[in-house]
Specification:
This protein is mainly α. It is built from 8 helices and no strands. Helix 1 packs antiparallel against helix 2, helix 1 packs across helix 3 and helix 6 packs antiparallel against helix 7. The structure holds protoporphyrin IX containing FE.
Length: about 210
């Protein structure tokens, strides 16, 4: 394994752990907004420790940088369908992570908002922002599961038959769609009424012409 791949894999372990806990946090919203906020408060006990948050943010930059380096290296060359899926899901995750993390940091330090359930849900409750936020979040969850299934596919190569590896990829995509649908339904107010405080809606309205 070359150095770039080793670094990509190392930061992926940290980020994947965070992302899985993070999505479990969002799934807690199925039980209501209070459950989501209580879960996030508990997670912040660790992720708001400056050294831990710095490590997480460094992993985001390393992951995006090494991922884009892979894409550039492969540009124009032949790619089997599975590798193409890995490249497309990785490219979307790179875009999403840069926008998402910048938006969370801006929410906290520029707009002085608590970046909790309401910060994420506001865009789903104010037209025309939902046209952006539904695919933006939905595709992120789908891309994460497809990308992780792709990584697993590479790890077990040579140990399981090709048909099993294809089924692993399909299972990843189905799981991603289900998790994305559940999170969007809860955040979007389809499961129970969601009231977004004015401070969050006013912040978004500030982006309208
Ligand atoms: C439906 C999808 C998602 C929603 C609604 C969402 C929402 C949020 C919110 C509200 C925060 C702020 C957390 C806090 O203040 O403690 C956050 C932070 C973050 N999210 Fe997400 N997220 C989603 C998907 C993802 C995915 C798929 C990833 C990774 C692949 C991800 C990575 C991150 C990272 C790295 C942070 C920054 C943590 C920090 O600075 O402490 N998110 N997200």
């Amino acid at each position: 394994m070359n150095g770039l791949r080793r670094v990509h894999r190392g930061s992926a372990i940290v980020l994947a752990l965070y992302a899985l806990v993070h999505l479990a946090n969002h799934l807690a919203a199925l039980d209501g907004v209070a459950s989501h906020i209580a879960f996030m408060d508990a997670v912040r006990g660790l992720t708001r420790v400056p050294a831990v948050e710095a490590l997480l943010l460094a992993c985001v930059l390393v992951q995006v940088g090494t991922g884009l380096a892979f894409l550039l290296r492969r540009r124009g060359g032949p790619m089997p369908p599975f590798l193409r899926m890995q490249a497309v899901s990785g490219a979307y995750l790179a875009f999403f992570l840069l926008v998402h993390v910048s938006s969370v940091l801006a929410g906290r330090f520029v707009f002085k908002l608590d970046t909790n359930f309401h910060y994420a849900a506001a865009g789903l409750h104010l037209a025309p922002f939902h046209f952006f936020f539904v695919p933006y979040y939905g595709l992120a969850v789908l891309a994460l599961f497809v990308h992780l299934a792709g990584a697993l596919h590479l790890l077990v190569r040579g140990r399981v038959v090709a048909a099993t590896r294809v089924r692993m990829g399909q299972a990843g995509a189905v799981l991603g769609l289900v998790v994305a649908g559940l999170i969007l339904a809860a955040f979007g107010g389809l499961l129970y009424p969601v009231v977004i405080p004015d401070a969050y809606l006013d912040n978004l309205r500030g982006f309208l012409p």
